[in-house]
Amino acid sequence: MTAVSGQQKPPTLDGPVAKVRRANFHYTEVVEAWDKLARSYYTRPDAYTVEIRDNGCKHVYRAGPHFPSIDPDWGLVLGDAIHNLRSALDHLAWQLVIANGGTPHDGMGGTQFPVVEKPKQIAISGGIDAQALQIIDDVQPYHGTSDGQNLLLLNKLDIMDKHHFAIVTAMVAGNWGRVVDPRFPTIIEKGRPNPTVGVKAGDEAAWFVYATPLNNPDPNLNLLPDVSFVEGPLAGESFLEIGELLRWVQALFRRFARFFPT
Fold first, then answer.
1. Is residue 4 domain-resident?
2. What is the pLDDT along the chain (262 residues), one digit of tens a residue?
3. What is the DSSP letter of 55?
4. Based on the number of CB atoms within 10 Å of its own CB, is 26 exposed (0-12), middle (13-18) or buried (19 or more)?
5. 244 with 210: CB under 8 angstroms?
6. Of 143, 206, 216, nearest to 177 (Cα)?
7. What distances in angstroms separate CA 96 from CA 100, 131, 176, 220, one per listed residue?
8. Which of the 8 DSSP states describes residue 59?
9. What Rg, from alpha-carbon coordinates, does the chain have?
10. How many CB atoms lie within 10 A of CB 139?
11. Which among 57, 51, 43, 68 is positioned nearest to 206, based on CA atoms?
């Protein structure tokens, strides 16, 4: 661990915010690409087939013959978004040290944003304002709060990305909606196959159980494909969870704005 030599520049959130902005760029790139692909697929008349079972009470949806495939680069792009978000927190810690009149430290054990799962005294190498340190302590995973869960999830995803890219897979019925129409029976149960296993043309994608028989496909039910993580801490969850982490980091930064007078 070595102190950074030379004259320090004034403290600023510009660098950390730029990292978050870059994360948003990568995330949005995947969102827009998938949205275009999914919506073009959904408008096809053969988007999916419906098997009506149990005398009309159960409808099973299967992926159509042209079910879209995942761009393998999407996992890499999402990994870049994750890494930029995690790096933004370390950049924040660095600037907090400068804002407190201290000198950040490079190397192992240097200035970084801590992630602590068991109770312990939090410290930032180089020293930061006591109130800023309290905010960092408040968001640690060992408190069991949603802040702590988000921080731990982000850290685990970043570690995963360092060793293998964040693989994703397509699935049908990740997003679904239904227009309320009293002429049609209520859906009382729904499900889908294991979302960590990719869906191919002809595969079962989702199923719905109705309170009373419906002997024709439900015209009020809309299904869109989604993208889920295959493995890691978000296995089976939609890639849109990265957007939730992005918004969490943005909100966290606002809590530190007062330490950087304009």
1. no
2. 566 655 678 899 999 999 999 999 999 999 999 888 888 887 788 888 999 999 999 999 999 888 888 888 999 999 999 999 999 999 999 999 999 999 999 888 899 999 999 998 999 999 999 999 999 999 999 999 999 999 999 999 999 988 877 778 777 667 778 888 999 999 999 998 888 888 888 999 999 999 999 999 999 998 888 888 988 899 989 999 999 999 999 999 999 999 998 7
3. G
4. buried
5. no
6. 206
7. 6, 11, 44, 53
8. E
9. 23
10. 22
11. 51
Residue 2: inside a domain: no
Overall size of the chain counted in residues: 262
Tell me whether residue 53 is in a domain.
Answer: yes
Of residues 122, 126, 148, 120, the one with CA closest to residue 134: 122
Distances (CA, A) of 122 to 114, 134, 137, 138, 226: 8, 9, 6, 10, 39
Domain count across the chain: 1
Range of the domain at 44: 9-259
Q: Is residue 3 part of a domain?
A: no
| C-beta of residue 191 within 8 angstroms of C-beta of residue 207 | yes
